[in-house]
Specification:
Helices cover 42% and strands 13% of the residues. It is of the alpha/beta class and 165 residues long. It has 7 helices and 5 strands; from the N terminus they run βααβαβαβαααβ. It has a single domain, classed as 3-Layer(aba) Sandwich (Rossmann fold). The longest helix is centred in the middle third of the chain and has 22 residues. The strands form 2 sheets. A 3-stranded parallel β-sheet has the order 3-4-5, covered by helices on one side. Strands 1-2 form a two-stranded parallel ribbon. Strand 3, helix 4 and strand 4 form a beta-alpha-beta unit. InterPro entries: 3Beta_OHSteriod_DH/Estase, NAD(P)-bd_dom_sf, NAD(P)_dehydrat-like.
């Protein structure tokens, strides 16, 4: 959508030369307006380079477990939080005007205190409750909850425009 409207888009991928990214290069106006950057959630400099010159950033990266392949806390929560902090700090450095963090229902629904009630921005999944759950999705739910809370707190500390969707 942004490319078709004439915006320049900076995208981050693990390897810009990997053929699995070829479909991105075929999007409307991609030849002129799409710039792919090599980036990793732990690589602040790579993220900073990609974000430099941007007025808005969509932060969507979060490790996701695949069916039957459980990931540990270190494999999910640490990269999610580190990546979110790195993206937000790079946004501060680049004076980005708006940051959109892609959330998940996981950040709000896992709280036994709120059964069958409408959820709003004051509702958060209970991290203690999540720690008590078993299953390979548990750390993903924790990661999404913690990274969204970090983004909201960063927004308050930096008086920055952050929205979650």
């Amino acid at each position: 959508f942004l490319l078709s409207r004439g915006y320049t888009v900076h995208g981050t991928v693990r390897d810009p030369c990997d053929e699995k990214n070829d479909h991105l290069k075929k999007l409307d106006n991609a030849a002129k307006n799409l710039k792919l950057f090599k980036a990793d959630l732990f690589d602040y400099e790579g993220l900073s380079t990609a974000i430099s010159g941007c007025s808005g950033v969509f932060h969507i990266a979060c490790p996701v477990p695949f069916e039957g392949v459980p990931l540990s806390e270190e494999e999910l929560i640490i990269p999610a939080l580190t990546g979110t902090k790195n993206v937000l700090e790079a946004c501060t450095e680049a004076k980005v005007k708006k940051v959109v963090v892609v959330s998940s229902i996981a950040a709000v629904v896992y709280n036994p205190k709120w059964p069958n009630v409408a959820k709003n921005e004051d509702c958060w999944s209970d991290t203690h409750f999540l720690h008590s759950l078993e299953g390979y999705w548990t750390y993903y739910y924790l990661a999404k909850t913690l990274m969204e809370r970090e983004a909201i707190e960063w927004s308050k500390r930096n008086l920055a425009d952050v929205v979650t969707v």
